[in-house]
Protein: Signal recognition particle 54 kDa protein
Organism: Rosa chinensis
Amino acid sequence: MVLAELGGSISRALQQMSNATVIDEKVLNECLNEITRALLQSDVQFKLVRDMQTNIKKIVNLEDLAAGHNKRRIIQNAIFNELCKMLDPGKPSFTPKKGKPSVVMFVGLQGSGKTTTCTKYAYYHQKKGWKPALVCADTFRAGAFDQLKQNATKAKIPFYGSYMESDPVKIAVEGVETFKKENCDLIIVDTSGRHKQEAALFEEMRQVAEATKPDLVVFVMDSSIGQAAFDQALAFKQSAAVGAVIVTKMDGHAKGGGALSAVAATKSPVIFIGTGEHMDEFEGFDVKAFVSRLLGMGDWSGFMDKIQEVVPKLDNQPELLQKLSEGTFTLRIMYEQFQNLLQMGPLSQLTSMLPGAELMPKGNDKESQAKIKRYMTMMDSMTNEELDSTNTKIITESRIVRIARGSGRLVREVMEMFEEYKRLAKIWSKMKGIKIPKKGGISPL
Ligand code: GDP
């Protein structure tokens, strides 16, 4: 099951639960079973899934929930937190500091994408002003040095390696020393892989680590290896001080569950994911954003970060933010949003991260712009009461006819605009209760 399918199955299970009139033990069990099935099909390790199910049942005690509590929200929240917990080992990995030399050693099986990922990691940091360098200590695979050299040259990153020397430890030490002298602040050591886990590989890894004393060991894992992920990650963890995980090939038909298993096995966070063969197909990994997307809740942490970024740019900031946190969405807000969309203003960046945003008019193509302008003309013919009310019932048939006439549009078009409004209001209502905007630690629910 590819990641998108996993997300789809989980959100469908939650949706089905939301559709139930009463949420009782049976409905909760059905929902959890559905989610369990989806996670297992995505190759999350059985024990992890079972623990998650037990934990949720412990947290959500339906009988204890006082009447009036929003059970759905509590259940959804519990699922969100449990999934985050699975992906969050509880301690951050070592983070290299710009300007201070750090050695980062990459380990993983052959074909996992290790060499590609080393370059991506170097390139990512180079773009942010670091001075990275690459050392090829893979003397096992013929062509490994050529590959690294080619990638490094393309990205204009200094590299070190040898066609003659067969001792990976010697190359690694020389490379690290050379780049320390050159004041590189991120020295990346690519080590050998093997087709399978074997003693020789782990021994070599241990020796390279002992000689170069890396600040961080990154385990690179191919996301498509399925249920094997847990054991493979554990084997690497036992032989090297793995401190972080990078999951590659998330763009393919990957079973995303492997990432969850690798975190559990190594007790180390996923720090990046590879999403393609190209150098810049590489993304930082954020647990909350990942799980939010899985649950079809939009990218909440990205959204909250964005709020902080754009808030200073919003003129009508206090009222709008107040309304955001109340989940209130009036036609006037929609009008203001449309104005923003037309200017590609800050709000359009925000709304693009919300759940259901893919259905929003985008404002950047001709057709959408025409539609937005048409809607705005109709709204120009509305009264203040209509624009500021959250009660759609006040928009009666006679009012629709009046708005159509006033704006020179068809009744059908006005009705279509109201449908759009109702849909957006529903999306907006999910923001009820969000706290705005202290950096970090913002709960989406
Ligand atoms: P190594 O043996 O572990 O060093 O693996 P390589 O870096 O040589 O990668 C093996 C193959 O996987 C190459 O064809 C890479 O282009 C490809 N690859 C690496 N990362 C990704 C990724 O994130 N997405 C995709 N689609 N391919 C990748």
In short: The longest strand covers residues 216-222. The chain has a mean pLDDT of 80.
